[in-house]
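User: Please predict structures.

Assistant: First:
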Amino acid sequence: MLLIEKKAYIYALISSIIWGSFPAISRINLNHLNNYQVLFFTNIIAVCIFGLILLITGRAKKVIHAPLRTHIPPLLIGIPACLFYGLFYFSMKRTGTLEALAIVYTWPFLLIIANWLFYGEKMDVFKTVKIFLGYCGVALVISAGNGLAEISLSHWSGNLSAMVSVIFWVLFNSLASRRKSDAVADHFFIFLSMLALSGLFWLLSGGGIPCFSALGGLLWIGALNMSMAFYLWFYALKIGDRTKMAGIMFLNPVFALAWVFALLDEKITLYQVGGMLVIFAAILIPVKAGRVAKEEI
């Protein structure tokens, strides 16, 4: 039993390390391609990988013979997922990697606000402090210590794009987490939906085929970040303690920061590093499980 739990930790940790590479590798991809090309070709790879997993594990036949109505929800869930990736790539073209990264990692805070506004979960002191610190950290990263008024218009458009992308990521997570069906099959149809939508964006933007030097980065995102990391994560949740596994995801911002330092030659100020640490600290603040407020009768 201890060995199984150890394997679950290893798989979850590998997933977190791979996911942490997403911003840095995406930035490298965007040096060679536009955001629509990156989105479309990484989705092609992800669909192929998940389709291959379904075939190898013997689940393809079951998926093919399942009623069409069972595939409609994941196909719809793929829409906000595609919009998240598209807007995030757009923001990375217009602003710094660390700025886009800091904004995207505010999604747990936005989720708390959404649960409070739409599901009646109570807002307590811990949640309020968590949200306040999180957005203070974002302000530090975006301003880089120079003040928000000095940010250029192009950076503002990138930052706003990242903020909107977070809304779609929260929507995607909220919808996907409520699904009780086969996670691998679900993600195959999610990526299939993303492929169709990103293909439309790619065609409308003028198409274009990636150069040979861009293939490595596309394969990394499509095969590892969007596919293998998800598969290992699902497997870790299946054989390990879900609560303990979820705790490993708190390391994502740390790994992301390490990848940015290791791979990118971007000017990063101490204010930005401090802001990322504030965001990380805010994420770590524990909150009680949300309780829905009782309605007045």
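Second:
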Amino acid sequence: MAYMGQERAMGRRIGLFDAEPILPGDGDDSFTPFFTKALSLARHIKESAPLFDARLLAEGVVLVERRPRGRDGGGFAALFNLDGRSGRFSLPEIFPRRGEDLITGTAIDLGPNPELSPEPLVMGLA
């Protein structure tokens, strides 16, 4: 488990050094599998692709890339809509537009101007 109720999508923050328990009815059990998968995926990405880059693509839209050492291709990318914006944005021309959504397991093709999603997108790149 993580700490402070994150794994249960709790509406209140538990102090890290407080002896406040997480009660069985606190939070949302349906969030736990997503959190577990996200934590495992983050660990895998960090271990296999240590080179890191982040850039702002548009206001509130961040692209984070992780690449393996000494190899062309492969790696991972994540798109974050930090402000909950809607609409389309432009991807850099060098950014691979096809890959696998590692959260849902589906193949994706973003095209040059994808629609913003409120959810993070984590892609495995070929």
